[in-house]
Every structure is written in C-alpha cells, then in structure tokens.
C-alpha cells in the first residue's frame, strides 16, 4: 500500500472583471475497496457565495460553486490524502472469451444492466470504423478477455507517439488515428472506442499517476499532472481491469482515482460558465503527488 498527499491548483486569470462565475469540479478522490480517502478538501478563492458537494450518477463527488464577488483571478485548490493498494483480478474473469463479456449481447450476465452505459458510444469516444478495425486486431475469436485487452494496450503504446502538440481538447478518435499521436486523454478515448466498437464495457478514469524521480535526483514539487486511463468490465468477478495505454501498464498502487465516466466530457477537473467582458484569459494548473510514510501500526 502507498500513501499520497495530492495537491491540485487551477488558476484562471482575466483582463477584466468577472461578475459571476459558476463552476463544478471533479477533484475529490473516490472511496474504493482499494483506495481509502483519509482527508479531502476543495477551496475556491474568492470565497463563493454558494458552494456544496454532491454525487453524480456514476458515484463521483462533485463540488459546485458560484462566485459573485467581482474578480480577475479565480483559484481552485484541492488537497487530499489517499491510501492506495494493489488490486488483484479474478483469474477466471480474465480467462473468459472476450465475446462473452459483452453486456448488450449477454444481458444475462450478473450486473450487466449496471454497465450498459459504458458499452454505448459517447461523444468523445466514438467507435468509428477505424477504431473497430484497429481493435479487431487484438480482439480475435475466443481470445481470453484479459489477454486481448492487454494486447490492445501494448499496441496503442507502441503505435502511437506521446506528443502534446499533436492534438487539442476537441480532437476526435479519428484525429488520433490519423496522426498516430496524442496525450493520455486521446489514448484513453481511442482505447474506449476500440473496445466499445466490439461491445465491451469500458469507462474513462481520471486521476493522478505518482511519478518517481530519476536515480539520485530529488522530486520536483508541482511537476506532476492529471492523468487518464481506462477500466474494462470483468464479468463474473464484478471487477474492472484498469489499463494505462500511455505508460503500457496495468494501473496499480501508483494510481490515484478521482472520477470515472463515459469519457473526458463527464469528468473534467473543472468546468463552468463566467459572465465577463474580458477578451483574454489565462489558465495555469499545477499538480503534486507526494508520497507519505505509512506507519507500521
């Protein structure tokens, strides 16, 4: 098990007063069988006239706020302390033929109705023909589910280049396939599209990946970033296999889960609406995932 203190700051700047700002943040980690949230808070400056926490349809904690004090700078600070353990997966669920794991084709599977939403198309993870063809190379006839999913992860990591300049937040699955490059969000959406095109249920997961400094170097505070990966439904066990195509590995105790949904559009770190006559704005985000000592007792 590992323990982390996660600090996430989002700072907006404007060249004129914002008279009203409505926002929602997905910045509180989820409490899960393998993840214990020891403490969590989200603070907004200027102080909101109204703020509250809620839970969305996927069980994510959301923080809603409205700032009515005129301002040219808005800062959202989220700080949490989380314990994360390794997650074991049921061998029988991993070994079943992937064709049997499709909730829309096999609604008789236990809890299939609960995951139906994650097997359907979504706006940012459209199961295009290109995605279906790319996924088919891994999802061969009667191949074990775990083996097929991991093969797809390996191929995306191998075939696509990590390039921050290749895509934008509005890029599509088709764009990623064409450019053969992108960032974690793009690779997660591509993975979802490939799996859903063949009827599997998979969800977009947002959170953080704790990075280790090079040997002999100290951690650089604030050098971490938000991350995204994918979790695939494992029938029979009621679990999910979380894979990270960006880093070509199964998500484990270095991964802090914030929220999940159909795609990025369901769980952006912060989104909202402002009322202003400002013509320019800035956005600065800093993230730090600091390891903490876990006492033996």
How is this fold's topology laid out?
Elements: E1 2-25, E2 35-45, E3 50-55, E4 61-67, E5 71-84, H1 91-95, H2 112-115, H3 129-136, H4 145-159, E6 161-162, H5 173-179, E7 181-182, H6 184-196, E8 202-209, E9 226-234, E10 239-244, E11 249-250, E12 255-261, E13 270-276, E14 281-292
Parallel strand pairs: 6-7
Antiparallel strand pairs: 1-4, 1-5, 1-13, 1-14, 2-5, 3-4, 8-9, 8-12, 9-10, 10-11
Helix pairs in contact: 3-6
Question: Can you describe what's shown?
Answer:
The protein is α+β, with helices and mostly antiparallel strands and 297 residues long. The chain folds into two domains: 108 residues, Immunoglobulin-like; 161 residues, C8orf32 fold (Roll). It contains six helices and 14 strands. The strands form three sheets. Strands 1, 2, 3, 4, 5, 13 and 14 form a seven-stranded antiparallel β-sheet that branches. The longest helix has 15 residues. The two termini are 13 Å apart.
């Amino acid at each position: 098990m590992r323990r982390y203190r996660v600090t996430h700051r989002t700072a907006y700047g404007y060249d004129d007063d914002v008279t009203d700002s409505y926002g929602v943040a997905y910045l509180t980690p989820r409490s899960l069988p393998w993840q214990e949230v020891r403490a969590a808070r989200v603070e907004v400056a200027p102080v909101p006239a109204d703020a509250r926490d809620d839970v969305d349809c996927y069980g994510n904690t959301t923080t809603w706020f409205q700032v009515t004090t005129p301002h040219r700078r808005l800062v959202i600070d989220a700080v949490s302390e989380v314990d994360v353990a390794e997650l074991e997966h049921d061998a029988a669920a991993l070994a079943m033929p992937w064709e049997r794991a499709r909730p829309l084709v096999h609604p008789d599977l236990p809890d299939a109705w609960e995951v139906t939403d994650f097997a359907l198309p979504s706006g940012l993870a459209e199961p295009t023909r290109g995605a279906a063809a790319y996924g088919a190379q891994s999802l061969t006839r009667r191949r074990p589910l775990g083996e097929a999913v991991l093969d797809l992860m390996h191929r995306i990591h191998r075939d696509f280049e990590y390039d921050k300049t290749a895509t934008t937040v509005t890029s599509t699955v088709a764009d990623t396939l064409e450019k053969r490059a992108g960032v974690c969000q793009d690779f997660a959406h591509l993975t979802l599209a490939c799996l859903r095109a063949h009827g599997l249920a998979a969800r977009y997961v947002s959170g953080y990946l704790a990075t280790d400094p090079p040997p002999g170097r100290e951690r650089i505070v604030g050098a971490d970033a938000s991350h995204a990966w994918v979790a695939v439904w494992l029938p029979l066990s009621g679990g999910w296999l979380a894979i990270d195509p960006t880093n070509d590995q199964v998500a484990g105790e270095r991964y802090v889960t914030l929220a999940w949904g159909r795609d990025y559009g369901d769980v952006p770190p912060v989104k909202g609406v402002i009322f202003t006559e400002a013509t320019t704005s800035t956005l600065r985000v800093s993230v730090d995932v600091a390891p903490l000592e876990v006492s033996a007792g």
